[in-house]
Write a structure and sequence with these properties.
alpha+beta, transmembrane helix, 24 helices, seven-stranded mixed sheet, cadmium, ATP-binding, Cation_Transport_ATPase_IB
Length: 615
């Protein structure tokens, strides 16, 4: 019965409103007092029933809630035959709860949008080789699934056959479709825009990347910050205090109506709802912009950030080394580059791949007698020529003469942060190539924006040599740069900053730097939604888009400020209402409840501004 009544709460609100209108029309229009009184009595009784049920449920778990205060106030008004007050108070309370729930649902729109994007069915291959549509719950790891044009990818998996382009915006935030073919990985919740694919299910249900994103946002919206826990404790003692104040005032003044009015006006509704609704709205905004914030505790710490520490490779830089400089010391350059490409194709070293990619399509020669020199490079025979490809040490070992000009070029390349690849043919230097990781486009502007948002120190920690790290720091205008750092060195550096009282964020790729991500107050993963990124960090930039970082910081600052505004509004309204009871003639229970409900809507609407937040 209780459940049925609570489900019909909105209907009761409408009936109460109609009865109150009938009462005023009867009283003012037709001077019919009995109909007016009975309409208000029925409205009061109907209205107080769901409120009283909620009060009873709260008292069962030893919580003196707002519903308890309102129930006592309405019963008191009813006893002293102030039916007008009791009817209006119950209607305003129920109507306020309806509006509150409706606006809260809007702030949770990010979760709704995500869950609606989750796939519900899949075309699964049966034992006879045919495909049949089944519920997503019936798909297991290892099943073969068919995905047609326009359909959602139902699981995380690997392409077996077929080619197509997939819109991965739900995972990476990147709107440009990604080409997929045999052995390509695919994500659940993404959309096959053209083509037909057969895929093997690697992860299903909640274990998929998409499932983990939904779980993360749900957990974040349900988590509580220190501010929310404080308000919970405050309300626990505040509500009985209002009851006590009401009782004492009634005892001293012998004015029951005054005591009941204090109960209504002292309700801390806006205070209780103000912080959680800001938290939910901020997290919802972030989720829609590929910034996942793991709860309001993260928001609180992030908004007060002192120092942001970056891993270099894959974070400040693209993580894909490319040829940046070259010097040619020979006329027949095409033939030498063909020799070089042929030798480098024998290696899977990142620098070798960069060289092959840079040279592009060229003639391929048979490579013989290949010798890998540890810490030096490769020596091989191509078309009867001895070809050495590697660093300066290998050239000296091969007795290759390095002229003053060459040594000057080498020094210049190193100053620019390049890794060196030298190529000699038959003991004579032919080509000098400089390779370096490229800085992410727009990173410098993003770092300047972080400074404007109040980040005092921007630090880079890297395993690369100090010269390369210094070069990146100078180019980007960073505060500090430290090279030759192992993962444990990075963790120790962050711990030292924290011991000095700084609030530290660490930005990494979510794989090699998981100790630092876990140790920092705010771990931020540039992870494209990888498992490690989601599990380890506090903030995930789902599309590895560095420009989302200033947005995330700005959003957390706006959310923290919004929480504070709502607390000030809520406390201010209660203080003004209580002061008005004692020091004014115009304040009564109905006006007080109207202001009280209005204050709840004000804090909710204030929080909803975060849904439209832009940096």
């Amino acid at each position: 019965m209780q459940k049925f009544i609570l489900e019909k709460k909105n209907h009761i609100t409408i009936v109460s409103a109609i009865l109150i209108i009938i009462a005023y029309v009867s009283k003012l229009g037709f001077k019919n007092e009995p109909i007016a009184i009975w309409s208000l009595i029925i409205a009061s009784v109907l209205g107080v029933i769901p409120i009283a049920i909620q009060a009873y449920q709260a008292l069962k778990v030893k919580v003196v809630s707002i519903d308890v205060l309102v129930t006592i106030a309405v019963i008191g008004a009813f006893i002293i035959k102030n039916y007008e007050e009791s009817a209006i108070v119950t209607f305003l309370f129920l109507f306020g709860a309806y509006l509150e729930q409706r606006t809260l649902n809007k702030t949770r729109s990010a979760i709704k949008e995500l869950t609606e994007m989750a796939p519900e069915v899949a075309l699964k291959q049966l034992k006879n080789g045919e495909f049949e549509e089944v519920e997503i719950e019936e798909v297991d790891v290892g099943d073969i699934l068919l995905v047609k044009t326009g359909a959602k990818i139902p699981v995380d998996g690997t392409v077996l056959t077929g080619e197509g382009h997939i819109n991965e915006a739900s995972i990476t935030g990147e709107a440009v479709p990604v080409s997929k073919k045999k052995d390509s990985g695919v994500y659940a919740g993404t959309i096959l825009e053209n083509g037909t694919l057969q895929i093997t299910a690697d992860r299903v249900g909640e274990d998929t990347t998409f499932g983990k994103i939904i779980e993360l946002v749900e957990e974040a919206q349900d988590s509580k910050s220190e501010a929310e826990r404080f308000i919970d404790r405050f309300s626990k003692y505040y509500t009985p205090a209002v009851l006590g104040l009401s009782f004492i005032v009634g005892l001293i003044s012998r004015d029951i109506e005054l005591a009941i009015t204090i109960l209504v006006l002292g309700c801390p509704g806006a205070l209780v709802i103000g912080v959680p609704v800001s938290n939910v709205a901020g997290i919802g905004n972030g989720a829609r912009h590929s910034v996942l914030l793991k709860g309001s505790e993260v928001i609180s710490d992030f908004s007060r950030l002192d120092t942001m520490v970056f891993d270099k490779t894959g974070t400040l830089t693209i993580g894909n080394p490319k040829v940046a400089d070259k010097e040619i010391y020979v006329d027949n350059v095409d033939e030498v580059l063909a020799y070089l490409s042929s030798v480098e194709k024998e290696s899977d070293h990142p620098l070798a791949k960069a060289v092959v990619e840079y040279i592009g399509d060229t003639k391929s020669y048979t490579v013989e007698k290949t010798v890998v020199v540890k810490g030096g490079g490769i020596v091989a025979h191509v078309e009867g020529h001895r070809v050495a490809v590697g660093n300066v040490a290998l050239m000296e070992q091969e007795n290759v003469l390095l002229s003053e000009k060459v040594r000057g070029d080498i020094a210049r390349f190193e100053e620019n942060g390049n890794s060196l690849v030298l190529t000699s043919v038959d003991g004579e230097l032919k080509v000098l190539i400089g390779i370096r990781d490229q800085i992410r486009p727009g990173v410098k502007e993003d770092l300047q924006q972080l400074k404007k948002l109040g980040v005092k120190n921007l630090v880079v920690l890297s395993g690369d040599n100090q010269g390369t790290v210094d070069l990146v720091a100078r180019e980007l205008g960073l505060t500090e740069a430290h090279g030759h750092m192992l993962p444990e060195d990075k963790s120790a550096y962050i711990k030292a900053l924290q011991e000095r009282g700084q609030i530290v964020a660490f930005v990494g790729d979510g794989v090699n730097d998981s100790p630092s991500l876990a140790l920092a107050q705010i771990g931020i993963a540039m992870g494209s939604g990888t498992d490690v990124a989601i599990e380890t960090s506090d903030v995930v930039l789902m599309n590895s888009d560095f420009s989302r970082l200033p947005y995330a910081l700005g959003l957390t600052k706006a959310t923290a400020n919004n929480m504070l505004q709502n607390i000030i509004i809520a406390v201010g309204v209660v203080l003004v209402l209580l002061a008005s009871v004692f020091f004014s003639e115009w304040m009564n229970m109905s006006i007080g409840m109207l202001v009280h409900e209005a204050s709840i809507l004000v804090v909710i609407l204030n929080a909803m501004r975060l849904l439209r937040y832009k940096l």
